[in-house]
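Researcher: Sequence of Alkyl hydroperoxide reductase AhpD follows. Predict its structure.
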Amino acid sequence: MTIPEILDAFPDYARDIKLNVQSVLAQSELTEQQTWTNAVACALASRNETLSQAILAEAATKLSPAQLSSAKAAFAIMQMNNIFYRFRHMVGKDDYANIPARLRMQSIRTHGGDPVDFELACLAVSTINGCEACVRSHEAVVREKGVSAEAVVASVRIASTLHAAASVIEAPLS
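Model: Prediction complete. Tokens:
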């Protein structure tokens, strides 16, 4: 299914989500590459196969293979890191914070895409996954690298809207 086909099948109660999906994929605050890098990472993080396949198909026409792979790497590494660092943050004890993670995270340096766009996607996925420590960390990195507050919010709009869309698709009352 294509994105328009998915959205056309949305029930009336999800009209706001349908319209928001259309608008967040065309925000002026982000470049096309940033938009689709975020969309790929967020669709995958939202764990809906129908939505993920549609977003991946569209993104393949807008991103280089390296950038598409980078978006997937942002999704994958944040699935692991968000759990680990959310645990540390939730417990809030220094003895856990001082134990090395000892988790392989090479994709953070070797993802092959634009480093700023990768970080923005990591921020968006971390928002979906509810990891405050990772959200704070990636937000600080992108802001330090010159990303505007408006672009950060635009990235989070993609996260929130695609996560909602995935939930609507999965809802038993669709």
